[in-house]
Amino acid sequence: MLCPYLPQMSRFNLCGRIKLRPAEHLVIIVFLSESVMAFAWEPTGNKFAFIHGESPRISVSFYSIRAGKVELMKTLERRQANHLFWSPAGQFIVLAGLRNMNGVLEFVDASDVTVMANTEHFMATDVEWDPTGRYVVSAVSWWGHKVDNAYWIWSFQGRLLLKQPQERFCQLQWRPRPQCLLSAEELKGLKKNMKKYTEQFESVDRLRQSNVSSEQIEKRKTLMAEFKKYREEKEEELEHYKSRRIALRGGVDTDVLYEEEIDEEVVEFLLKVEEKVLDE
Question: Pfam families from the entry (predicted)?
C-alpha cells in the first residue's frame, strides 16, 4: 500500500497493489483543504494518521481502510504535534510536539481514538518505541539542545517510569527484539487455544496464591498460640502472688479497687430526610 501526497493539489493517493500489473492497481483519493505536516501508517493494522493544518489550528486525523474503502475514524483538533510515532505492535500512537513545540506528548489508543495521557518532556527532540510496543523513550539530545540532556521512559499508556539525566547525552537505541522461535503454525495454534492456556496459567496462579495464603495463616496461628500461652502463664503467676500482694497492702485487694461499671450510651443523629411522591 502506497500513499503519495500531492501538496499542490492537497490530496492523498492511496494505491493498493495486488499484483504487478498496472491495470490491477486500486487508487483511492483523499482530498484535503489544508497542508499536511506528517503522515504515518499503522505498522500492523489497517489505519493511518496524519497531521494537518497550521498553528495554532493543528489537527490529527485517523483513517481506517476496510474492503477498499477509506473511512474517517476521528479528528483530534487543536493539537500541539508535529510528529507521529506508532507502536511497532500497532494500535497505540504518540502524538509528539518536538523541538519548537516544547516536547508535548499525547498517548492515544487508535482502536477508538481515545487519549490515554497528555504530558510533556520539555525540549524533547526524539521519541523511540521499544520493539515490543510496551515502552516509549523521549529524549533531549545534546545534538538538539546543549542543556537538560536526559531520557525518560514511559509505559505505552503514558505513565512515566524513569527519569535519567545524562550530561551530553546524544542518542538511545533499543536492542532489536529476537526472532520468535515458534513457527507460523505454532503461533497460529497458540492464538487459537489461548483460552485453554489462560485457564491453565490462572489455575497455577491460584494454587500458588493459596499456598502463600495458607503459609501466612499458619504463621499467624503459631504467633497467636505463643501469645495465648504467654498470657496464661502470666495470669497464673499473678494469681499465685495475689495473697502476698493483699498482705503487703494492708488487706486491700487493689486488683478490684479501680474496677468500674461501664455503661454504653447510644446517640442518634438525623442525617438526611427524603420525601418521595408515590403514584396512586
Answer: eIF2A
pLDDT in tens, 6-52: 554 455 555 544 343 454 556 667 777 778 888 999 998 889 999 99
Please give, one letter per residue, the 3-state secondary structure of the chain.
CECCEECCCCEEEEEEECCCCHHHEEEEEEECCCCEEEEEECCCCCEEEEEEEECCEEEEEEEEEECCEEEEEEEECCCCCCEEEECCCCCEEEEEECHHHCCEEEEEECCCCEEEEEEECCCCCEEEECCCCCEEEEEECCCCCCCCCEEEEEECCCCEEEEEECCCCCCCCCCCCCCCCCCHHHHHHHHHCHHHHHHHHHHHHHHHHHHHHHHHHHHHHHHHHHHHHHHHHHHHHHHHCHHHHHHHCCCCCCCCCCCCCCCCCCCCCCCCCCCCCCCC
The answer to whether the pTM exceeds 0.70 is no
User: Edge-to-edge, what's the strand order for the sheet holding 25-31?
Assistant: 5-6, 11-17, 25-31
Q: For the chain, how many residues are written? A: 280
Q: How large is the greatest C-alpha to C-alpha distance in the chain, in angstroms? A: 119
Cell of residue 224, nine digits: 497467636
For residue 110 the three cell numbers come to: 487508535
Write out the H or E segment, with its range, that includes residue 62: strand 57-66
C-alpha cell at 238: 499473678
